[in-house]
Automatic annotation (TrEMBL), chain A:
Keyword Isomerase: no
Species in which this protein is naturally found: Terfezia boudieri ATCC MYA-4762
Protein name per Swiss-Prot or TrEMBL: ATP synthase subunit 9, mitochondrial
Keyword annotations from UniProtKB, A to Z: CF(0), Hydrogen ion transport, Ion transport, Lipid-binding, Membrane, Mitochondrion, Transmembrane, Transmembrane helix, Transport
V-ATPase proteolipid subunit C-like domain span: 8-60
UniProtKB/TrEMBL annotation, chain B:
Protein name listed in UniProt: ATP synthase subunit a
InterPro entries: ATP_synth_F0_asu (IPR000568), ATP_synth_F0_asu_AS (IPR023011), ATP_synth_F0_asu_bact/mt (IPR045083), F0_ATP_A_sf (IPR035908)
Keywords: ATP synthesis, CF(0), Hydrogen ion transport, Ion transport, Membrane, Transmembrane, Transmembrane helix, Transport
Annotated organism of origin: Terfezia boudieri ATCC MYA-4762
Main location per the UniProt record: mitochondrion
Record Pfam families: ATP-synt_A (PF00119)
Family statement drawn from the similarity comment of this UniProt entry: Belongs to the ATPase A chain family.
Transmembrane segment boundaries: 41-65, 86-111, 117-136, 143-163, 175-193, 200-220
GO molecular function, one term: proton-transporting ATP synthase activity, rotational mechanism
UniProtKB/TrEMBL annotation, chain C:
Keyword Transmembrane helix part of the UniProt annotation: yes
Gene source species: Terfezia boudieri ATCC MYA-4762
Name under which the protein is recorded: Mitochondrial F1F0 ATP synthase-like protein subunit F
Keyword Transmembrane helix on entry: yes
GO molecular function (one): proton-transporting ATP synthase activity, rotational mechanism
């Protein structure tokens, strides 16, 4: 029983990754929105997006 | 329950891959029992640095020019078009060092030196401390205006200075933590997934074909980890540049 | 006045184009044969690629420069895998040969 709860707890602990996933999704969604509105800023926005991706990824 | 714990004991600890082992050691009963040791992290750091040296010596073309142009544009855009150029050699070698060590970690049976907080923290603390000394040397006591946000009401000043100071100090930790945590998390994930795949594959004939699904996940995550090796070294370098810029220009 | 008159006279005399010594031309033939000899001994065709000096010069000629390839990466990967497997075997694998953990 304790063993099973330990394993279930391990699984539950990984749900924290949901937040990192949402964060990465928001970052790249916002990148697409920004590039769609102003395609000339693509390079600059992409480097910011990579930075944001790394920040979001670091929490996961 | 017995069978469950049995099958669990099959899985070795996923943290085994980060273990530091002694390869060569010299214990001498002189100079307060000095002990000079080459561990596997030291060995792989030496290997990484020699790879970087040899690649930079041999590469006369494409290899170098792409990386050079990328890092040069980062330095120029982040720091300054004229004053930032002297930091380029430092930033370039930092990038190559982190990238090569990340990629050595991605090789099977390799060893991820950058997954060790000792290494990344020593790099990041050195960088932030160096940037602070640079700012103090350049601006004197005026450097502390970095902690005062422009145009804030006087009543809020103590609080804001405290917050800014904390955020400045936490750069030390966050810079190194981000790199090492990413590498550790990626390697743990790959190890857990691949040992799961191995256990499924060896447990029967039909299971061998069923395990092709988790195997495809392992391959996909390996690609992701390769991308993260590049992205993390780039982010490390970009943040280093922005810290140097903060010290040079005070906002 | 007299100077100009002298020059006028000198232009009147024709240059000495042919002489008995010049007609024989034996000296020039010897020289020409030496020149021809020198140029026939020179290497023909496009210049061979220069060898890079140094310890890794041959390696650099083979995989970098003109005919760049990705093979150095493969060499590094194979080398590190060999070293890493040796270490893993020494520290870990040989203790679990018959009993998996």
């Amino acid at each position: 029983m304790i063993q099973a709860s330990k394993i279930i707890g391990t699984g539950l602990a990984t749900t924290g990754l949901i937040g990192a996933g949402v964060g990465i999704g928001v970052v790249f969604g916002a990148l697409i929105l920004g590039v769609a509105r102003n395609p000339s800023l693509r390079g600059q926005l992409f480097s910011y997006a990579i930075l944001g991706f790394a920040f979001a990824e670091a929490t996961g | 329950m017995v069978s469950l714990s049995n099958s669990l004991s099959f899985i070795s600890s996923p943290l085994d891959q980060f273990e530091i082992r002694t390869l060569l050691s010299l214990d001498a009963p002189i100079l307060a029992n000095m002990e000079i040791t080459v561990t596997n992290i030291g060995f792989y750091l030496i290997v990484g640095v020699s790879i970087a040296f040899i690649l930079n010596g041999l590469a006369t073309n494409y290899y170098q020019i792409t990386i050079y142009a990328t890092i040069h544009s980062i330095v120029v855009n982040q720091i300054n078009r004229t004053k930032g150029q002297i930091y380029f050699p430092f930033i370039f070698s930092l990038f190559i060092f982190i990238l090569v060590n990340n990629l050595i970690g991605m090789i099977p049976y390799g060893f991820a030196s950058t997954s060790h907080f000792v290494l990344t923290f020593s790099i990041s603390f050195t960088i932030v401390l160096g940037a602070t000394i640079l700012g103090l040397q350049k601006h004197g006591l005026e450097f502390f205006s970095l902690f005062v946000p422009a145009g804030c009401p006087l009543a809020l000043l103590p609080l804001l200075v405290l917050v800014e100071f904390l955020s400045y100090v936490s750069r030390n930790v966050s810079l190194g933590l981000r790199l090492a945590a990413n590498i550790v998390a990626g390697h743990l994930l790959l190890h857990i997934l691949s040992s799961l795949t191995y256990n499924i594959m060896t447990s029967g004939f039909i299971f061998f074909f069923m395990a092709l699904l988790p195997l495809s996940f392992v391959i996909a995550f390996s690609g992701l980890e390769l991308a993260i090796a590049f992205i993390q070294s780039q982010v490390f370098v970009v943040l280093t540049c922005s810290y140097i810029k903060d010290a040079l220009e005070l906002h | 006045m007299s100077f100009i008159a002298k020059r006028g006279i000198s232009t009147l005399i024709p240059p000495k184009v042919a002489s008995p010594a010049g007609l024989g031309a034996a000296k020039d033939a010897v020289r020409m044969s030496r020149v021809v000899d020198f140029y026939t001994k020179l290497p023909k065709g496009p210049a061979p690629p220069r060898k890079t000096p140094g310890l890794l010069g041959g390696y650099q000629d083979k995989y970098f420069g003109k005919k760049a390839s990705g093979m150095p990466i493969v060499h590094v990967i194979v080398g590190i895998m060999a070293i890493g497997y040796a270490q893993a075997y020494y520290f870990h694998i040989r203790h679990h040969k018959n009993n998996a953990h």
